[in-house]
Amino acid sequence: MKSVTVAAALMLLAGLCHAQADEARAKKIIGGSCFLCHGAEGESASEVFPRLAGQNADYIAKQLENFKTGKRKSSAMAPMVADLKPDEMVALGQFFASRPPHKEAPKDTQLAAVGQYIYSQGNKFSGVPACASCHGPDGGGSNALPRLAGQHAAYLDSQLKQFNKRERNNDNAVMHTVVEKMTALEMAAVSEYLSGK
């Protein structure tokens, strides 16, 4: 019985050491380039760049891999990920996922109220489904889907527009079907609502 306990303790210790090594490696990569746009903790102060703090780890790793292969187009990100290995992408995802997500009040509360309705109820008149049906009631997504809550409104709006124009096609094709029904006002409203979640 004692040997089982010792073995379990050693496995736990090995896992902890591995996690610390991954975090150290992630911090080194972030300090080399990521922090310039996304911040040292994923807090991105610029609305042009997404906040990565609190983002789902698997989603980050997938996006990095998609930038590397060209499946997701970005002239800014392509050179940043060119030398990343799969395990480094995973380490970066885990690092940013472990950071607390950003919270701030929406800048336009009336627009956010419209966005809240569309996010949670959809628009039955135009056929836009509730965003919450996939992204969850709190905007936290899942491992495969992004955390939307607390993201910059301008960034979210730009991504919805890219889905609408089919300029972004590395993710779920359902997004094309949903966003093509959304008006510019609905995109802005949902983005404003989520930025304050």
Keywords:
mainly alpha, Cytochrome Bc1 Complex, Chain D, domain 2, 2 domains
User: Major beta sheet, specifics?
Assistant: none
- The appropriate CATH architecture of the largest domain is Orthogonal Bundle
User: What does the overall shape look like?
Assistant: globular
Provide the helix percentage. Answer: 55-70%
By helix and strand content, what is the structural category? mainly alpha
Count of distinct strands = 0
Number of domains: 2
The separation of the N and C termini measures 49 Å
Strand content: under 5%
**Average residue-wise pLDDT:** 90
What is the name of the CATH topology of the largest domain? Cytochrome Bc1 Complex, Chain D, domain 2
What is the element string, with H for helices and E for strands? HHHHHHHHH
Computed CA radius of gyration, to the nearest angstrom:
19 Å
Poorly predicted ranges: none
CATH superfamily of the largest domain: Cytochrome c-like domain
Could you name the CATH class of the largest domain? Mainly Alpha
Mind explaining what this structure looks like?
By secondary structure, the protein is mostly helical. The protein folds into two domains: 2-97, Cytochrome Bc1 Complex, Chain D, domain 2 (Orthogonal Bundle); 109-195, Cytochrome c-like domain (Cytochrome Bc1 Complex, Chain D, domain 2, Orthogonal Bundle), CATH 1.10.760.10. Helices cover 58% and strands 0% of the residues. It is built from nine helices and no strands. The protein has helices spanning 2-38, 57-69, 77-81, 86-97, 109-121, 132-135, 153-164, 174-179, 184-195. Helix 5 crosses helix 9. It is globular, with a radius of gyration of 19 Å.
